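Quick question, first post here. What does this chain look like in 3D?
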Amino acid sequence: MTAYIVRRLLWMIPLLVGVSIITFAMLKRIPGDPVTVMLLESRSSGRVITEADRERLRKQYGLDKPAYLQYFDWLGEVLRGNLGTSIRMKQPVTEVIKQRLPNTMKLAGVSLVITLAIALPLGILSAVRQYSWLDYVLTAFNFVGISIPQFWLALMLLYLFAVEIQLLPVRGMRSPYVEPGFWNHLVDTVTHYILPVTSVTLASLAGYMRYQRAAMLEVIRQDYIRTARAKGLPEHVVILKHAWRNALIPIITLLGYVLVILVEGSIVVEAIFSWPGMGLLAVDSLQQRDYPVVMAIVMLSAVLIMIGTLLSDILYAIVDPRVRYD
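> Answer (accepted):
Ran it through. C-alpha coordinates below.
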Protein backbone atom coordinates (compact mmCIF):
# COMPACT_ATOMS: atom_id res chain seq x y z
CA MET A 1 0.00 0.00 0.00
CA THR A 2 2.82 2.42 0.87
CA ALA A 3 4.53 1.92 -2.49
CA TYR A 4 1.21 2.46 -4.28
CA ILE A 5 0.58 5.74 -2.44
CA VAL A 6 4.10 6.98 -3.20
CA ARG A 7 3.66 6.19 -6.92
CA ARG A 8 0.35 8.03 -7.01
CA LEU A 9 1.86 11.07 -5.31
CA LEU A 10 4.77 11.15 -7.76
CA TRP A 11 2.38 10.95 -10.71
CA MET A 12 0.67 14.08 -9.43
CA ILE A 13 3.69 16.21 -10.32
CA PRO A 14 3.53 15.86 -14.15
CA LEU A 15 -0.28 16.02 -14.01
CA LEU A 16 -0.18 19.31 -12.13
CA VAL A 17 2.35 20.74 -14.57
CA GLY A 18 0.10 19.75 -17.46
CA VAL A 19 -2.95 21.30 -15.79
CA SER A 20 -1.07 24.54 -15.15
CA ILE A 21 0.12 24.80 -18.78
CA ILE A 22 -3.35 24.16 -20.21
CA THR A 23 -5.02 26.58 -17.77
CA PHE A 24 -2.46 29.33 -18.41
CA ALA A 25 -2.81 28.91 -22.17
CA MET A 26 -6.61 29.07 -21.95
CA LEU A 27 -6.47 32.24 -19.86
CA LYS A 28 -4.23 33.86 -22.42
CA ARG A 29 -6.74 32.99 -25.16
CA ILE A 30 -9.49 34.95 -23.42
CA PRO A 31 -9.89 38.38 -25.04
CA GLY A 32 -8.49 41.22 -22.96
CA ASP A 33 -6.15 41.24 -19.98
CA PRO A 34 -6.16 42.72 -16.46
CA VAL A 35 -4.87 46.07 -17.70
CA THR A 36 -7.62 46.33 -20.32
CA VAL A 37 -10.27 45.67 -17.66
CA MET A 38 -8.70 48.26 -15.34
CA LEU A 39 -8.64 50.85 -18.13
CA LEU A 40 -12.27 50.24 -19.03
CA GLU A 41 -13.29 50.73 -15.40
CA SER A 42 -11.21 53.92 -15.19
CA ARG A 43 -12.75 55.35 -18.33
CA SER A 44 -16.25 54.60 -17.08
CA SER A 45 -15.47 56.72 -14.00
CA GLY A 46 -14.32 59.64 -16.17
CA ARG A 47 -10.56 59.29 -15.76
CA VAL A 48 -8.29 59.94 -18.74
CA ILE A 49 -5.91 57.05 -19.45
CA THR A 50 -2.98 57.56 -21.78
CA GLU A 51 -1.09 54.97 -23.78
CA ALA A 52 1.90 55.55 -21.50
CA ASP A 53 -0.22 54.54 -18.51
CA ARG A 54 -1.25 51.39 -20.32
CA GLU A 55 2.34 50.37 -21.09
CA ARG A 56 3.44 51.19 -17.55
CA LEU A 57 0.76 48.93 -16.08
CA ARG A 58 1.53 46.12 -18.50
CA LYS A 59 5.20 46.29 -17.54
CA GLN A 60 4.34 46.47 -13.84
CA TYR A 61 2.38 43.20 -14.01
CA GLY A 62 4.77 41.50 -16.43
CA LEU A 63 2.19 41.40 -19.23
CA ASP A 64 4.63 42.88 -21.75
CA LYS A 65 6.58 39.61 -21.84
CA PRO A 66 5.78 36.66 -24.15
CA ALA A 67 3.23 34.23 -22.74
CA TYR A 68 5.75 31.43 -22.15
CA LEU A 69 8.00 33.76 -20.10
CA GLN A 70 5.00 34.85 -18.05
CA TYR A 71 4.25 31.19 -17.35
CA PHE A 72 7.81 30.44 -16.26
CA ASP A 73 7.80 33.52 -14.02
CA TRP A 74 4.58 32.31 -12.39
CA LEU A 75 5.90 28.73 -12.05
CA GLY A 76 9.12 29.97 -10.46
CA GLU A 77 7.20 31.94 -7.85
CA VAL A 78 4.94 28.96 -7.10
CA LEU A 79 7.94 26.68 -6.58
CA ARG A 80 9.18 29.19 -4.02
CA GLY A 81 5.84 29.03 -2.24
CA ASN A 82 4.51 32.34 -3.56
CA LEU A 83 1.15 32.21 -5.36
CA GLY A 84 1.48 35.82 -6.43
CA THR A 85 -0.54 38.97 -5.75
CA SER A 86 -4.12 39.56 -6.78
CA ILE A 87 -4.17 42.22 -9.49
CA ARG A 88 -7.71 43.26 -8.61
CA MET A 89 -7.50 43.29 -4.79
CA LYS A 90 -3.79 44.16 -4.43
CA GLN A 91 -3.38 41.43 -1.80
CA PRO A 92 -1.36 38.21 -1.73
CA VAL A 93 -3.37 35.38 -3.27
CA THR A 94 -2.90 33.25 -0.15
CA GLU A 95 -4.52 35.98 1.97
CA VAL A 96 -7.43 36.30 -0.46
CA ILE A 97 -8.04 32.55 -0.33
CA LYS A 98 -7.77 32.50 3.47
CA GLN A 99 -10.51 35.14 3.64
CA ARG A 100 -12.90 33.30 1.32
CA LEU A 101 -12.18 29.64 2.10
CA PRO A 102 -13.90 29.46 5.53
CA ASN A 103 -17.13 30.86 4.05
CA THR A 104 -17.24 28.19 1.36
CA MET A 105 -16.39 25.41 3.82
CA LYS A 106 -19.26 26.48 6.08
CA LEU A 107 -21.80 26.47 3.25
CA ALA A 108 -20.55 23.29 1.57
CA GLY A 109 -20.02 21.45 4.86
CA VAL A 110 -23.54 22.09 6.15
CA SER A 111 -25.04 21.18 2.76
CA LEU A 112 -23.00 17.98 2.50
CA VAL A 113 -23.94 16.76 5.98
CA ILE A 114 -27.64 17.38 5.34
CA THR A 115 -27.43 15.74 1.90
CA LEU A 116 -25.82 12.55 3.20
CA ALA A 117 -28.10 12.40 6.25
CA ILE A 118 -31.14 12.42 3.94
CA ALA A 119 -29.90 10.67 0.78
CA LEU A 120 -28.26 7.56 2.24
CA PRO A 121 -31.19 6.37 4.41
CA LEU A 122 -33.72 7.12 1.65
CA GLY A 123 -31.56 5.30 -0.91
CA ILE A 124 -31.41 2.23 1.34
CA LEU A 125 -35.14 2.39 2.02
CA SER A 126 -35.95 2.71 -1.67
CA ALA A 127 -33.87 -0.37 -2.48
CA VAL A 128 -35.20 -2.49 0.37
CA ARG A 129 -38.80 -1.65 -0.58
CA GLN A 130 -38.29 -1.91 -4.33
CA TYR A 131 -41.48 -1.45 -6.43
CA SER A 132 -43.43 -0.12 -3.45
CA TRP A 133 -45.25 3.21 -3.58
CA LEU A 134 -42.40 4.75 -1.58
CA ASP A 135 -39.85 3.53 -4.13
CA TYR A 136 -41.90 5.03 -6.98
CA VAL A 137 -42.20 8.38 -5.18
CA LEU A 138 -38.48 8.54 -4.42
CA THR A 139 -37.58 7.50 -7.98
CA ALA A 140 -39.82 10.23 -9.39
CA PHE A 141 -38.18 12.73 -7.04
CA ASN A 142 -34.76 11.60 -8.27
CA PHE A 143 -35.66 12.10 -11.92
CA VAL A 144 -37.06 15.55 -11.21
CA GLY A 145 -34.05 16.49 -9.09
CA ILE A 146 -31.55 15.41 -11.72
CA SER A 147 -33.47 17.19 -14.49
CA ILE A 148 -33.73 20.60 -12.79
CA PRO A 149 -30.69 22.85 -13.44
CA GLN A 150 -29.11 24.12 -10.24
CA PHE A 151 -29.10 27.75 -11.38
CA TRP A 152 -32.84 27.61 -12.15
CA LEU A 153 -33.62 26.04 -8.78
CA ALA A 154 -31.57 28.66 -6.94
CA LEU A 155 -33.23 31.50 -8.87
CA MET A 156 -36.71 30.13 -8.17
CA LEU A 157 -36.02 29.80 -4.45
CA LEU A 158 -34.58 33.30 -4.42
CA TYR A 159 -37.57 34.74 -6.26
CA LEU A 160 -40.18 32.92 -4.16
CA PHE A 161 -38.82 33.28 -0.62
CA ALA A 162 -36.76 36.47 -0.91
CA VAL A 163 -38.64 38.56 -3.47
CA GLU A 164 -42.29 37.49 -3.41
CA ILE A 165 -42.78 36.38 0.19
CA GLN A 166 -39.82 38.44 1.49
CA LEU A 167 -39.31 35.89 4.22
CA LEU A 168 -35.57 35.32 3.79
CA PRO A 169 -32.62 37.60 2.94
CA VAL A 170 -31.55 38.00 -0.69
CA ARG A 171 -27.77 37.89 -0.48
CA GLY A 172 -24.67 37.58 1.64
CA MET A 173 -23.87 35.78 4.88
CA ARG A 174 -25.22 38.36 7.31
CA SER A 175 -27.18 41.57 7.42
CA PRO A 176 -25.36 44.94 7.48
CA TYR A 177 -26.90 45.71 10.86
CA VAL A 178 -28.19 43.27 13.46
CA GLU A 179 -29.59 44.09 16.87
CA PRO A 180 -27.08 43.20 19.62
CA GLY A 181 -27.54 39.84 21.25
CA PHE A 182 -26.57 36.23 20.64
CA TRP A 183 -29.99 35.08 19.47
CA ASN A 184 -30.37 37.98 17.05
CA HIS A 185 -27.04 37.13 15.41
CA LEU A 186 -27.90 33.42 15.37
CA VAL A 187 -31.27 33.98 13.70
CA ASP A 188 -29.72 36.33 11.17
CA THR A 189 -27.01 33.77 10.30
CA VAL A 190 -29.47 30.88 10.00
CA THR A 191 -31.83 32.82 7.74
CA HIS A 192 -28.93 33.69 5.42
CA TYR A 193 -27.93 30.02 5.24
CA ILE A 194 -31.37 28.60 4.42
CA LEU A 195 -31.65 29.41 0.72
CA PRO A 196 -28.04 28.64 -0.33
CA VAL A 197 -27.97 25.41 1.70
CA THR A 198 -31.34 24.33 0.30
CA SER A 199 -30.17 25.00 -3.26
CA VAL A 200 -26.96 22.99 -2.86
CA THR A 201 -28.69 20.17 -0.97
CA LEU A 202 -31.56 19.70 -3.42
CA ALA A 203 -29.17 19.81 -6.38
CA SER A 204 -27.02 16.94 -5.04
CA LEU A 205 -29.65 14.93 -3.15
CA ALA A 206 -31.00 13.01 -6.13
CA GLY A 207 -27.57 11.86 -7.30
CA TYR A 208 -26.55 10.39 -3.95
CA MET A 209 -29.93 8.69 -3.55
CA ARG A 210 -29.70 7.02 -6.98
CA TYR A 211 -26.16 5.78 -6.35
CA GLN A 212 -27.10 4.38 -2.95
CA ARG A 213 -30.26 2.71 -4.26
CA ALA A 214 -28.47 1.09 -7.21
CA ALA A 215 -25.64 -0.16 -5.00
CA MET A 216 -28.02 -1.62 -2.41
CA LEU A 217 -30.11 -3.38 -5.09
CA GLU A 218 -27.01 -5.09 -6.40
CA VAL A 219 -25.77 -6.15 -2.96
CA ILE A 220 -29.01 -7.47 -1.46
CA ARG A 221 -29.29 -10.02 -4.31
CA GLN A 222 -25.95 -11.62 -3.43
CA ASP A 223 -25.71 -15.13 -2.01
CA TYR A 224 -24.13 -14.06 1.30
CA ILE A 225 -27.16 -11.84 2.00
CA ARG A 226 -29.51 -14.81 1.51
CA THR A 227 -27.24 -16.86 3.74
CA ALA A 228 -27.36 -14.21 6.47
CA ARG A 229 -31.15 -14.23 6.33
CA ALA A 230 -31.22 -18.03 6.39
CA LYS A 231 -29.23 -17.97 9.61
CA GLY A 232 -32.09 -16.10 11.21
CA LEU A 233 -30.37 -12.75 11.62
CA PRO A 234 -32.71 -9.78 12.13
CA GLU A 235 -33.45 -7.87 8.92
CA HIS A 236 -31.94 -4.63 10.19
CA VAL A 237 -28.67 -6.46 10.96
CA VAL A 238 -28.62 -8.01 7.48
CA ILE A 239 -29.20 -4.66 5.81
CA LEU A 240 -27.03 -2.37 7.90
CA LYS A 241 -24.14 -4.68 8.83
CA HIS A 242 -23.83 -7.01 5.84
CA ALA A 243 -25.37 -5.19 2.88
CA TRP A 244 -24.76 -1.52 3.49
CA ARG A 245 -21.01 -1.82 4.05
CA ASN A 246 -20.53 -3.33 0.60
CA ALA A 247 -23.01 -0.88 -0.92
CA LEU A 248 -20.86 2.00 0.29
CA ILE A 249 -18.18 1.45 -2.34
CA PRO A 250 -19.90 3.51 -5.10
CA ILE A 251 -20.66 6.22 -2.54
CA ILE A 252 -16.97 6.33 -1.60
CA THR A 253 -16.23 7.24 -5.21
CA LEU A 254 -18.38 10.33 -4.79
CA LEU A 255 -16.97 11.11 -1.36
CA GLY A 256 -13.52 11.26 -2.92
CA TYR A 257 -14.52 14.67 -4.25
CA VAL A 258 -15.71 15.96 -0.90
CA LEU A 259 -12.46 17.91 -0.51
CA VAL A 260 -13.15 19.73 -3.77
CA ILE A 261 -16.73 20.46 -2.74
CA LEU A 262 -15.65 21.80 0.65
CA VAL A 263 -13.00 24.09 -0.84
CA GLU A 264 -14.52 25.18 -4.14
CA GLY A 265 -18.18 25.09 -3.17
CA SER A 266 -20.89 25.74 -5.72
CA ILE A 267 -19.98 28.49 -8.16
CA VAL A 268 -23.58 28.84 -9.32
CA VAL A 269 -25.11 29.12 -5.85
CA GLU A 270 -22.43 31.45 -4.51
CA ALA A 271 -22.79 33.74 -7.53
CA ILE A 272 -26.60 33.89 -7.32
CA PHE A 273 -26.74 34.49 -3.56
CA SER A 274 -23.57 36.66 -3.48
CA TRP A 275 -22.03 34.28 -0.97
CA PRO A 276 -18.47 35.55 -0.34
CA GLY A 277 -16.73 32.24 -0.92
CA MET A 278 -14.37 30.58 -3.34
CA GLY A 279 -16.99 30.11 -6.06
CA LEU A 280 -17.85 33.80 -6.20
CA LEU A 281 -14.14 34.62 -6.04
CA ALA A 282 -13.52 32.44 -9.10
CA VAL A 283 -16.29 34.17 -11.08
CA ASP A 284 -15.13 37.68 -10.15
CA SER A 285 -11.49 36.83 -10.88
CA LEU A 286 -12.34 35.47 -14.33
CA GLN A 287 -14.34 38.57 -15.17
CA GLN A 288 -11.49 40.81 -14.02
CA ARG A 289 -8.82 38.63 -15.71
CA ASP A 290 -7.10 38.27 -12.34
CA TYR A 291 -4.68 35.61 -13.56
CA PRO A 292 -2.88 34.82 -10.26
CA VAL A 293 -6.14 34.16 -8.39
CA VAL A 294 -7.63 32.05 -11.20
CA MET A 295 -4.46 29.97 -11.48
CA ALA A 296 -4.37 29.42 -7.72
CA ILE A 297 -8.00 28.28 -7.62
CA VAL A 298 -7.59 25.91 -10.57
CA MET A 299 -4.40 24.39 -9.22
CA LEU A 300 -5.94 24.00 -5.77
CA SER A 301 -8.90 22.21 -7.37
CA ALA A 302 -6.58 19.91 -9.32
CA VAL A 303 -4.61 18.99 -6.19
CA LEU A 304 -7.78 18.27 -4.24
CA ILE A 305 -9.24 16.12 -7.03
CA MET A 306 -6.08 14.02 -7.13
CA ILE A 307 -5.93 13.69 -3.35
CA GLY A 308 -9.65 12.89 -3.23
CA THR A 309 -9.25 10.16 -5.83
CA LEU A 310 -6.33 8.69 -3.89
CA LEU A 311 -8.34 8.74 -0.67
CA SER A 312 -11.20 6.97 -2.45
CA ASP A 313 -8.87 4.17 -3.53
CA ILE A 314 -7.52 3.83 0.01
CA LEU A 315 -11.04 3.74 1.45
CA TYR A 316 -11.92 0.97 -1.04
CA ALA A 317 -9.35 -1.26 0.65
CA ILE A 318 -10.69 -0.38 4.09
CA VAL A 319 -14.35 -1.04 3.23
CA ASP A 320 -13.74 -4.07 1.02
CA PRO A 321 -10.98 -6.43 2.28
CA ARG A 322 -10.84 -8.06 -1.17
CA VAL A 323 -9.29 -4.89 -2.64
CA ARG A 324 -5.51 -4.90 -2.48
CA TYR A 325 -2.93 -2.56 -4.05
CA ASP A 326 0.45 -4.08 -4.79
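The chain has two domains: 2-79, 96-319.
The CA atoms of residues 100 and 281 lie 8 Å apart.
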